[in-house]
Amino acid sequence: MLSDPRVSACLVLYHQDQSVQRTARCIAESTEPVELYIVDNSPEDITVRFVQLECPEATVFPQKKNLGYGKANNLVLNKLHSKYHLILNPDVTFDRTLIRRMVDYMDAHPDIVILSPRVLNPDGTEQFLPRRRPTVRYLLGGPLERFGKPFTTWRTTFTMADQEITAPVDVEFATGCFMLIRTHAFFKMKGFDPRFFLYHEDTDLTLKALQYGHVVYHPDMVITHDWHRGSAHSMKLRLRHIWSTCQYFAKWGLKW
User: Fold this and answer.
1) What is the pLDDT of residue 16?
2) Secondary structure tally for the chain: helices H, strands E
3) What value does the mean pLDDT of the chain take?
4) What pLDDT is attached to residue 47?
C-alpha cells in the first residue's frame, strides 16, 4: 500500500477472462503510482489472479455474491486516502503516461470534479462517449437508429457525434468505464447510488458531481475500451438496462 498516493483506483471483477491482465498491466506500468483496490464479485473463479500477477500489492475484497457495479465500487470508499480516485472497467487499456497527465490537468483546474477521456474501440474507431443528459428521445435513438431519421439525429445529438471536439469541453455524462474523480467529492456524494445495480450508475454519479463543479471531457486523454455491449446480446441484461433506465427517470425526472 502506498503511504501517500495521489491516485487510488478500483477494479470490479465479475467473471472476466484473462484479458483483464492487460488492464492490470496498464495500472502497474503507469508513471503515476496507483493504489489499487479489487472488488471480486465472482470469487469462485480465478479472475483476480490475473490482476495480482501484474499488481501483487493490490488490496482484494472478495464477495460472496455479485453486488453490482456501483455498490461494489462503494466498498472501498472508507479505505481511500488519495487526492484522486480512478474508476475503470477491467476491459480498458491506456498509455503509461495517461493517469499522470490527467492528474496534472486536474491539479491545474481545481474546478473540475470529474475528468473523462476520449474512448476508442480496439480498431481505433470512436465510441462517442461524451454525452448530453439522457432524455427519453435520446435513449430511444440508439436502438431505433437503424430506421433512419429522426432516430439517427437523436442518437448523434445525444452522443455529441455531430460535433468535432478538439479541446476540453464540459459534458453532462462521464463514462463509468474510465473516470477520474476528486476523492473528496466522491466522499461527499457517498459514492454511487446502490440502487443502480448496473447501467446508469455513471449517469447518476455525473449528475451528482455537477453539483460540486465541472465534469470535463478531454479529447487528448485517450483510452481503448473493448466494449461488448452486453445488453444488446442478452435478454437478462437488456431487462436490467430497462429497469435502470426507469430508476434513472424516477430519480431525475422524465424528459422527452
Assistant:
1) 85
2) 9, 9
3) 91
4) 84
Q: What pLDDT band is residue 230 in, cutting at 50, 70 and 90?
A: very low
Q: Return the DSSP state at 131.
A: B
CB atoms within 10 A of CB 229: 9
Q: How far apart are the C-alpha atoms of 121 and 125, rounded to whole Å?
A: 5
**Cα–Cα dist 220/96, whole Å:** 14
- For the record, the C-alpha cell of 154 comes out as 437523436
| CB of 75 closer than 8 Å to CB of 210 | no
Q: How many CB atoms lie within 10 A of CB 87?
A: 27
The average pLDDT across 128-138 equals: 86
224 in helix, strand or coil? strand
Cis peptide before 150 (omega within 30 of 0): yes
Distance CA 160, CA 169 (A): 11
